[in-house]
From TrEMBL:
A single Gene Ontology CC term: outer membrane-bounded periplasmic space
Pfam families, sorted: Beta-barrel_RND_2, BSH_CusB, CzcB_C, HMBD
PANTHER family linked to this entry: CATION EFFLUX SYSTEM PROTEIN CUSB (PTHR30097:SF15)
GO biological process: one example: plasma membrane copper ion transport
Segment forming the signal sequence: none
Region: Disordered, residue numbers: 409-429
Domain (CusB-like beta-barrel) ranges: 249-325
Name assigned to this protein: Cobalt/zinc/cadmium efflux RND transporter,membrane fusion protein, CzcB family
Organism: Rhodanobacter fulvus Jip2
Source species, domain of life: Bacteria
Gene Ontology MF term list: transition metal ion binding; transmembrane transporter activity
Ranges of Low complexity composition bias in the record: 412-429
Keywords: Ion transport, Signal, Transport
């Protein structure tokens, strides 16, 4: 009887040992992985990692850190990231490893210089048309080709006109008259000569000569831009003979983009350079903005007046025009790399410290020198992300922050655009 009892006691003891070993293994399995999971909770935070994911393929979830199938370092998704609306959180160590860079929102005066192409043209205010005042014949042409340079008073052409000859003969016959009636006739004859287009110099020259031909002289120094008659040709009263254009000043027509035309006005100073004259700078001002816009290029022309005392600038030359509008006041600006254009609006990502980021809708203005003016959404002093936005965009898409931003684009969250406490305001330095 004792032997079966001994055997039964031994079996009970073995079962007890097996149960104790099983329970001890369960306890050890529960507590042992704690060191391995210590990376699940970020240092200094109470958030718990729900899963790990590849920033390039955010829809794939993994239960352990490491490299994704694409070879990218996976980042954690924390359970407490939904606590702050429109804010996403990324492990600061991951932010540093992926090279996410930020830049402050500064207040500065954007460079306002505008460079546009231009073309030199004639100053039409210096154009003088020489026409026939009466029927005549061109007996001699002193200028026989267009674009001939002439001096003031230089002979241009000789005309034979019967009306001139008779009027000059009448005026000459009355030179010696002494009576009052004869003097009145003489004055009337002189007025007739003036109506026929003869100047006092022409009258004196005709009296000294044969009186058969009248010489036309250049009224100013310049270039004969058009020559409409030939020697021996018969012309009628009012017919244009030639046009003399001065070169002491020239016009430049500069093509301004519509976005820049609003900053230019009459009196804006300009500096002009010409490839044909390297090293020379020509200074002038904008005279006016022409009221028409080119339908093909969508540019508006600005007329610029330049002094050209030595005649170095010739119409038709290509010029590079730098316009210098009056500098504006300092405005909030961000680097061009910080802007994310979606097609419907533009946003930036604010860095709020400790791995927290917020997407903010902004309204932009002018751009110059690698910076863009922010008209609404930022005040200056905030920090914006300028590289690594792909990581934050994917995280924001997971948390729904961008969807909430898209639903509120009409009001870009004044709280997000206000500077953080303790953050210095940009002063444009």
């Amino acid at each position: 009887m004792k032997r079966p009892l001994v055997i039964f006691a031994a079996v009970i003891a073995a079962v007890a040992l097996l149960v104790a070993g099983y329970l001890g293994g369960r306890h050890q399995a529960t507590t042992a992985p704690a060191p391995a999971h210590s990376s699940v909770t970020a240092p200094g935070t109470a958030g718990k990692v729900l899963y790990w994911y590849d920033p390039m393929v955010p829809q794939q979830h993994f239960d352990k850190p490491g490299l994704s199938p694409m070879g990218m370092q996976m980042v954690p998704k924390y359970a407490d990231e939904g606590a702050a609306k429109d804010v996403v959180r990324i492990d600061p160590a991951t932010v540093q490893n992926l090279g996410v860079r930020t830049a402050p929102v500064e207040r500065r005066v954007l460079a306002s210089a505008i460079r546009v192409p231009g073309t030199i043209t004639w100053d039409l205010r210096q154009a003088i048309t020489i026409s026939a005042r009466t029927d005549a014949v061109v007996s001699k042409l002193d200028v026989r080709a267009p674009y001939t340079v002439v001096k003031a008073g230089e002979p241009l052409a000789d005309l034979l006109a019967p009306q001139w000859s008779s009027a000059l003969a009448e005026y000459g016959a009355l030179q010696q008259a002494q009576s009052a009636d004869a003097k009145d006739l003489r004055a009337a004859s002189r007025e007739r000569l003036q109506v026929l287009g003869l100047t006092p110099a022409d009258i004196r020259a005709a009296r000294r000569g044969s009186g058969a031909a009248i010489t036309l002289h250049a009224p100013q120094a310049g270039v004969v831009t058009t020559l409409d008659v030939r020697e021996g040709q018969r012309v009628t009263a009012g017919q244009t003979l030639m046009t003399v254009n001065g070169l002491s000043t020239v016009w430049i027509e500069a093509a301004l983009p519509q976005g820049a035309a609003g900053t230019v006005c009459s009196g804006t100073p300009v500096v002009v350079t010409v490839d044909a004259l390297p090293g020379r700078l020509f200074h002038g001002t904008v005279e006016t903005l022409l009221p028409d816009v080119d339908a093909m290029t969508r540019t508006q022309r600005a007329r610029i007046v330049l002094d050209n005392p030595d005649g170095a600038l010739s119409p038709g030359m290509f010029a590079s025009v730098q316009l210098n509008p009056t500098p504006d006041e300092a405005v909030p600006v961000v680097p061009d790399d910080a802007l994310i254009a979606t097609g419907t609006h533009t946003r930036v990502i604010l860095a709020e410290g400790d791995g927290h980021f917020r997407a903010v809708s902004v309204r932009t203005g002018r751009a110059a020198g690698g910076y863009t003016e922010v008209l609404d959404g930022l005040h200056g002093g905030e920090k914006v992300v300028v590289s690594g936005q792909f990581l934050i965009d994917s995280e924001a898409s997971l948390s729904g922050a961008l969807q909430r931003l898209n639903d509120t684009t009409a009001k870009p969250a004044s709280a997000a655009s206000a500077p953080m406490p303790g953050m210095p305001m940009g002063d444009g330095q």
